[in-house]
Known about the structure:
By secondary structure, the chain is mainly α. It has a domain at about 10-85: Rna Polymerase Sigma Factor, Chain: A (Orthogonal Bundle), CATH 1.10.1740. The protein has helices at about 10-35, 35-50, 60-110. The protein is rod-shaped. The model has no long low-confidence stretch (mean pLDDT about 85).
Amino acid sequence: MLRQNDPVCSEKTYISLYNTYAKKLNNFVYYKCGDSKEAEDIVQESFVRLWKNCDNVPLEKARSFLFTVANNLFLNIVAHRKVVLHYARKNLLASMRKVHNLCWRKRSIWTNFKLPYPT
């Protein structure tokens, strides 16, 4: 059982926090993202960040710190995917325009020579 004056930086307290919140945090993140591997990665990173900031996080704020970090990590992933999707779409449209223009150029070449257009 954790006591309020236990430092988060002690291994015993950290392990206890992990045992208490890892499953709940995983369920929270999995509900948001729907990918178990991604949820595990986010949970792991949340606990790493708790460890790195253990001097600045009081024990009574550890739970909210973990859930806030996990939520922010998830939102960062979503924002990154939006950027990637935007540029993928942009590149796809540019490629489609190139193919379209190339096809029309080939077609105009065939019609200039009065040859049947191959189908």
